[in-house]
Write a structure and sequence with these properties.
Elements (H helix, E strand, L loop, with lengths): L1 H5 L12 H10 L2 H18 L1 H4 L3 H4 L25 H37 L1 H15 L3 H11 L4 H11 L2 H14 L3 H8 L4 H9 L4 H7 L1
Helix pairs in contact: 3-6, 6-7, 6-9, 6-10, 8-9, 11-12
Length: 219
């Protein structure tokens, strides 16, 4: 038996590809996903390099004699009612939009995934307490929260980030909790426990990676 096994070619026994390798292979085989990713990447790069593409002053300088112009080589997107270059305004405004989106997504990933994973894995009274906190925060309207913050603090971009951080992770926490609840009784979790793997390792090495599908879609 051992001799027969020794004669097998080395390619007969191969390790299965990892999770991210499988994701990359599926992604590059989907032309729609590739084209969409390239378009998003182009928009991100244009926003990042906006100061080199168009000066910031052009987005705010008012030239009334140039107002409401159509396409031209000087103003590819035209101008607004104040004579400001619309391409510059789109590019520099896109920088702020990207920053707000990245902060909201980062908060959702860090806080929401951790919160929901712990609630779903531990269960019991810990799950009840954590999810009741989520319900209370869900009951606060986002606009009301922003107005309340503006009453007590100065208007700033940081204030918007704080408001996003308070509410943006709630849905993510619920999604991850639901996924962990369905995964924690699976055989691979029982096998990890039998091998003496700790709860933290089971949670973040085995359960959280298996929730990445819904997490990526929602992000």
């Amino acid at each position: 038996m051992s001799a027969a096994t020794d004669t097998l070619p080395s390619t007969a026994i191969q390790r299965s590809p990892g999770y991210w390798v499988t994701v990359w292979r599926r992604f590059r085989r989907d032309p729609v996903a590739v084209i969409a990713a390239l378009m998003v990447l182009a928009l991100i790069l244009m926003a990042i390099f906006a100061p080199w593409i168009s000066p910031r002053e052009a987005a705010y300088t008012q030239v009334l004699q140039d107002r409401l112009q159509d396409f031209s080589w000087l103003h590819p997107f035209g101008t607004d009612e104040m004579g400001r270059d619309l391409l510059s305004r789109v590019l520099h405004g896109g920088r702020i939009s990207l920053l707000v989106g990245l902060v909201g997504t980062a908060v959702s990933l860090v806080v929401g995934v951790t919160w929901g994973a712990i609630a779903g894995y531990v269960g019991g009274w810990v799950d009840e307490v954590l999810m009741r906190i989520v319900d209370v925060l869900y009951a606060l309207p986002y606009l009301f929260l922003v107005i309340l913050l503006l009453v007590f603090f100065e208007r700033s971009l940081v204030l918007l980030f704080v408001a996003l951080g308070l509410v943006q992770w709630l849905t993510m926490a619920r999604i991850v909790r639901a996924q962990v609840l369905s995964l924690r009784e699976q055989s691979f979790v029982e096998a990890a426990r039998a091998l003496g793997v700790g709860d933290a390792a089971i949670l973040f090495r085995h359960l959280v990676p298996n929730t990445l599908g819904p997490v990526i879609v929602y992000s």
